[in-house]
């Protein structure tokens, strides 16, 4: 119980810091550009490889390879379909959702904003309460806001481009609960979580570089680490001089601003 309390405490603090903008994550994708690409690639000319390539042309280092992240079944909130992950991190995800047969369900209530663009087929959504249903066809977009929940109906052979921003790990219960308790498929649930964490590692360029560096240190031994330490220490004088030049330049800019202000 001690470890569970610690985990709950850490997660709660993280959520609060995120809520009050103490933690300001940087995002890889621009939401408007994701929407634009989705609308451009939608319609009768849509294909899974083409939209993946469209994103890879703009974000070559971040879009995951399909051979490592194939389509897998997805049972979430009553919706039955399949997903293909294009990108995933702790604060952001991009995926394709495909429903071959008509399906109904709930979006769930998440600590994130989720943008959905219909690539083909149709979608109807009604927010909780007595909100009238909104129908979307190919090329149209809607956003499910943080903390809200909607009932969704997907038509036969519907494919969606789904882009989310928020704390992604907090949505894990939504992605696997139906799979475990309704479909009784723990293997699919474990596969889903495995692919997510794998995507987090492979989508994160900085993390990839860190793993590659640690692997090189492990392979080459302490000599590699010592050479790097010596190199970075030798760069300290240059770094110090650059910093001093920056301070001097900033001081001159500040004095010029004071002179300009006094002349007004």
From TrEMBL:
Transmembrane segments: 6-23
Keyword Transmembrane among record annotations: yes
Keyword Nucleotide-binding listed: no
Localisation per UniProt entry: Endoplasmic reticulum membrane; Nucleus inner membrane; Nucleus outer membrane
Keywords: Endoplasmic reticulum, Membrane, Transmembrane, Transmembrane helix
Stored InterPro entries: ERG2_sigma1_rcpt-like (IPR006716)
A GO CC term assigned to this protein in UniProt: nuclear inner membrane
Superkingdom: Eukaryota
Family membership noted in the UniProt record: Belongs to the ERG2 family.
Name of the protein: Sigma non-opioid intracellular receptor 1
């Amino acid at each position: 119980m001690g470890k569970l309390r610690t985990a709950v405490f850490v997660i709660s603090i993280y959520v609060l810091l995120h809520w009050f903008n103490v933690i300001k994550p940087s995002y890889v994708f621009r939401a408007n550009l994701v929407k634009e690409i989705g609308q451009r690639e939608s319609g009768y000319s849509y294909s899974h490889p083409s939209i993946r390539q469209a994103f890879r042309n703009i974000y070559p280092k971040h879009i995951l390879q399909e051979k490592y992240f194939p389509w897998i079944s997805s049972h979430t909130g009553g919706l039955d379909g399949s997903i293909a992950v294009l990108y995933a991190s702790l604060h952001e995800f991009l995926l394709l959702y495909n429903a071959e047969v008509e399906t109904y369900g709930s979006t769930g209530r998440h600590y994130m904003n989720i943008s959905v663009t219909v690539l083909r087929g149709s979608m109807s959504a009604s927010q909780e309460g007595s909100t009238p249903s909104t129908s979307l066809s190919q090329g149209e977009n809607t956003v499910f806001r943080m903390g809200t929940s909607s009932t969704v109906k997907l038509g036969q052979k519907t494919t969606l481009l789904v882009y989310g921003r928020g704390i992604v790990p907090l949505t894990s219960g939504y992605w696997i609960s139906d799979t475990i308790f309704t479909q009784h498929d723990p293997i699919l649930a474990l596969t889903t979580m495995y692919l997510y964490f794998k995507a987090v590692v492979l989508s994160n360029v900085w993390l990839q570089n860190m793993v590659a560096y640690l692997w090189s240190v492990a392979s080459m031994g302490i000599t590699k680490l010592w050479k790097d330490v010596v190199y970075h220490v030798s760069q300290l004088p240059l770094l110090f001089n650059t910093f001093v030049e920056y301070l001097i330049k900033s001081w001159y800019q500040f004095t010029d601003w004071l002179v300009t202000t006094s002349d007004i």
